[in-house]
Specification:
about 15% helix; about 200 residues; alpha+beta; six-stranded mixed β-sheet; 2 helices; single chain
Length: about 200
């Protein structure tokens, strides 16, 4: 009996190691959950067929420097990370959209799993006429963030909230949150589909 239990435990350990090796780092970082992000919708099972992001919603990490640098157009929501390309799939414009009030105050919320030294958090929104049935590009976004929260290299707490005034918009849009890390070449990206 003891041999069978040991064999099962060893097998589970090998399987777990294989899964970690196949998906990269098991360590996560952070994501937005208000307005609800695509990665959270996948992690909670609200949206199906999400691939690996359903197990790693906090791992959408890519090069920083957005919008001048960072992920390529069409790969922004996944941070340029091919493992999470399902986040860049517009799904025909059918991602669930959070209802927001145009021009009103909104509190954005991030869940932080690894507290990196932080340069800032920035929030961009799509231009009027945005087509949610196409992958996100820089040309779809207003050129300047509507909210920037500087951190000066400080490490954020496990839950970070930022309150700001939403732009005056109507209809369906996308909010891109960018958490820029101070002491690495990377940032974390989070796309939230919204309706005003």
């Amino acid at each position: 009996m003891r041999r069978k239990i040991t064999s099962v435990l060893v097998g589970l350990g090998v399987l777990g190691g294989t899964l970690i090796g196949a998906t990269g780092s098991a360590q996560g970082h952070g994501y937005a959950d208000s307005a609800v992000s695509r990665q959270k919708l996948c992690a909670t099972g609200t949206v199906q067929n999400c691939g690996q992001i359903q197990w790693e919603p906090e791992s959408v990490e890519g090069l920083k420097g957005f919008p001048g640098g960072g992920p390529a157009d069409g790969q922004i929501c996944a941070g340029g990370n091919g493992r999470f390309s399902e986040l860049d799939d517009p799904r025909g414009g059918a991602w669930p959209a959070a209802s927001l009030a145009s021009g009103q105050s909104h509190t954005f919320n991030w869940r932080i799993k690894v507290r990196h030294a932080t340069a800032d958090f920035r929030y961009y929104i799509t231009k009027d006429g945005y087509d949610p049935a196409k992958p996100l590009t820089r040309a779809d976004l207003e050129p300047q963030p509507f909210l920037t929260v500087p951190f000066g290299g400080a490490r954020p707490p496990a839950t970070v909230t930022h309150t700001g005034t939403l732009p005056r918009k109507s209809g369906r849009h996308l909010i891109l949150g960018v958490w820029t890390i101070a002491d690495t070449a990377n940032a974390f990206y989070s796309c939230s589909d919204v309706r005003f």
